[in-house]
């Protein structure tokens, strides 16, 4: 389950892509506010207030969109300092009933409150034609920014032409200003929210924003491109107290802080939480189908070598390393909820191939982490539990770019963890270079452990109890495709004793076969046999994949098939021979059915 959450974080745009784009939007809004102020304010010293707030504003299209007011404007000619206090830019109520063409042109509008906007260093620009502006400092204190999505779903479809016009870069501004240099741009203690006006729902909130960028150079006709492509050696962006309710209403995301040192291309996330909005008892009922209720807490996530330029300009995600530290994941599944047989989850590599954007993450590392998987069986009163602690994992070459895969190799998972707080499992999963192929292989081993530790899971799900048993070692290797897995497992253990619990129903007994009915009469209690110099008996791994379930279920059930074949010789639930026989029988039945239908058709034509 941990890799479902992890790969999902990397691959789904609703996760990291959406967060990064929102962060970019916030910075862009703040920058455009400052740039826009310079474009309009820097006309000339004598008529600055009249030109911008009356002539320029009242004669422009923007006057149909926003009301602009302020309490005081101070301009000191000698020092070239401009201060605007209590600036408020707010959409007009009449805008939302304006002609569609205007509303489509401004699909997102802003409500802005700035207690203090300070611009220093205007003097050097007064005698120029303002093609090139150079300023010392722009400082925005305590801004409150609300981003308003005001179009319905159907209106957004009709507004696509306007989006296309804006997609290339930014709208060309015919102001006469070609570029400007800014020694320092600062935002202190700002806040940001994104709301849907149609539903009156807050979709995103950042309670605290701080931005500091030194030596900023912009081309006014290409603001976004120069912001993204320019390397800022001394730049810092921080967002704190972030809240994002997921659109489906089942989760809320909270983030303590996001830090971005732009110059070194690193993003650090502190105190990430994925919070379910329903209890364990109610989550599955509300969802309507069986699913894992995920509760996630993450102390620190660091994204190293993130290429923002590629994301914004090319819609590509290129990352050197993702470091995840102190992750806690609790996954809970209620098996009393109806199963969704229309769900066919893809393998991770196939999900990569289906992305509509380029992705390359060189390495993902997980340290000091733990997972608790809980499963409530049918009519059970308590869930079975699999605690996974001291988890360390490395995933390399997460990519859907053919050349990168050819050069660097296929995706590989390397996992080490303590299962049931008792045994250390080491597992490696290797995928093929053809990410459209479902094929992969896996191998690993497990160290010594008390087998009674498994009871925390099997007593409440399989209605079995291990009274005694010592696992000496477990080694395995197998290959898997879209249909089945096949391999070998060697399990060395002593003194195994299993009891079938009385509360087991006939249904469970039938599903478990001889394992439950004659548990301690036929099980192999020692492997190799006690007081023997024989080598341990290997067992076959063979499992027919349940295509409605994930790769993690596939891996777990494949291992269980080998363990079962070891403990109960000759009573493995499946084998390759049985599978081939069944497939051949089904194929024969299909051919017979086709032949019968063909004979009926010919007979009908003769008549």
* Uncertain stretches: 1-14, 38-50, 168-173, 512-521
- Count the helices. How many? 17
Structural class: alpha+beta
**Rg calculated over all Cα atoms:** 32 Å
Mean pLDDT: 81
Quantity of strands, as a count: 22
Structure description:
This protein is 29% helix and 41% strand. With 607 residues, the chain is of the alpha+beta class. It has a 22-stranded mixed sheet that branches. Strand 10 and strand 11 form a beta hairpin. It starts with a helix and ends with a helix. The N terminus is likely disordered.
How are the secondary structure elements laid out?
Layout: H1 2-11, H2 13-41, H3 48-58, E1 66-69, E2 72-76, E3 81-91, H4 100-105, E4 108-120, E5 132-141, E6 144-149, H5 153-158, H6 160-167, E7 179-196, E8 201-219, H7 223-229, E9 235-245, E10 251-261, E11 266-276, H8 280-287, E12 293-304, H9 308-314, E13 317-334, H10 348-353, E14 359-376, E15 384-399, H11 402-408, E16 412-419, E17 423-431, E18 440-446, E19 449-450, H12 455-461, E20 464-480, E21 484-500, H13 506-512, H14 514-517, H15 519-522, E22 538-544, H16 551-567, H17 576-606
Parallel strand pairs: 5-7, 6-7, 13-14
Antiparallel strand pairs: 1-3, 2-3, 3-4, 4-5, 4-6, 7-8, 8-9, 9-10, 10-11, 11-12, 12-13, 14-15, 15-16, 16-17, 17-18, 18-20, 19-20, 20-21, 21-22
Helix pairs in contact: 1-2
């Amino acid at each position: 389950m941990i890799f479902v959450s992890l790969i999902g974080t990397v691959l789904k745009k609703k996760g990291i892509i959406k967060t990064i784009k929102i962060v970019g939007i916030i910075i862009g809004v703040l920058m455009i506010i400052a740039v826009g102020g310079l474009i309009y304010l820097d006309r000339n010293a004598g008529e600055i207030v009249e030109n911008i707030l009356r002539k320029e504003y009242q004669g422009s299209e923007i006057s149909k969109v926003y009301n602009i007011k302020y309490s005081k404007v101070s301009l000191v000619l000698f020092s070239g300092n401009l201060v605007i206090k209590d600036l408020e830019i707010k959409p007009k109520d009449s805008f939302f009933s304006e002609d569609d063409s205007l509303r489509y042109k401004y699909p997102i509008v802003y409500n802005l409150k700035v207690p203090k906007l300070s611009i220093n260093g205007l003097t050097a620009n007064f005698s120029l034609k303002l093609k090139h502006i150079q300023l010392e400092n722009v400082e925005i204190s305590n801004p409150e920014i609300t981003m308003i999505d005001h179009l319905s779903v159907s209106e957004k479809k009709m507004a696509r032409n306007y989006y296309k016009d804006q997609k290339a870069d930014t709208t060309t501004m015919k102001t006469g200003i070609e570029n400007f240099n800014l020694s320092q741009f600062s935002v202190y203690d700002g806040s940001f929210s994104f709301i849907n006006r149609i539903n009156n729902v807050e979709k995103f909130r950042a309670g605290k924003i701080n931005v500091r960028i030194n030596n900023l150079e912009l081309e006014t006709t290409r603001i976004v491109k120069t912001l993204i492509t320019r390397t800022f050696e001394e730049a810092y962006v921080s967002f704190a107290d972030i809240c994002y309710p997921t659109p489906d209403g089942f989760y809320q995301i909270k983030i303590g802080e996001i830090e971005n040192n732009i110059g070194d291309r690193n993003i650090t996330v502190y105190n990430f939480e994925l919070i379910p909005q329903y209890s364990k008892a109610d989550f599955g009922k509300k969802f309507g189908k069986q699913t894992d209720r995920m509760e996630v807490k993450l102390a620190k996530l660091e994204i190293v070598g993130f290429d923002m330029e590629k994301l914004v300009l090319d819609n590509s995600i290129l990352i050197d390393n993702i470091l995840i530290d102190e992750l806690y994941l609790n996954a809970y599944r209620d098996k009393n909820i109806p199963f969704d047989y229309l769900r066919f989850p893809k393998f991770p590599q196939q999900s990569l191939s289906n992305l509509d954007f380029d992705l390359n993450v060189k390495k993902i590392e997980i340290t000091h982490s733990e997972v608790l998987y809980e499963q409530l069986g049918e009519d059970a009163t308590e869930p079975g539990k699999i605690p996974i602690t001291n988890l360390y994992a490395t995933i390399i070459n997460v990519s859907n770019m053919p050349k990168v895969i050819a050069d660097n190799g296929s995706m590989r998972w390397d996992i080490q963890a303590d299962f049931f707080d008792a045994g250390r499992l080491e597992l490696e999963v290797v995928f093929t270079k053809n990410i459209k192929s479902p094929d992969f292989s896996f191998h690993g081993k497990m160290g010594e452990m008390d087998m009674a530790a498994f009871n925390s899971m099997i007593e409440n799900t399989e209605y079995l109890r291990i009274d005694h048993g010592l696992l000496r070692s477990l080694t395995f290797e197998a290959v898997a495709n879209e249909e089945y897995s096949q391999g070998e497992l060697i399990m060395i253990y002593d003194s195994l004793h299993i009891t079938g619990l009385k509360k087991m129903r006939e249904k469970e007994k039938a599903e478990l076969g001889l394992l439950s009915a004659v548990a301690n009469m036929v099980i192999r209690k020692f492997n190799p046999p006690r007081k023997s110099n024989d080598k341990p008996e290997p067992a076959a791994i063979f499992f027919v994949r349940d295509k409605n379930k994930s790769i993690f279920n596939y891996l777990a059930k494949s291992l269980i098939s080998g363990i079962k074949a070891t403990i109960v010789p000759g009573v493995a639930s499946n084998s390759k021979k049985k599978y081939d026989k069944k497939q051949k029988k089904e194929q024969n039945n299909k051919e017979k059915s086709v032949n019968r239908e063909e004979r009926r058709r010919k007979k009908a034509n003769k008549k």
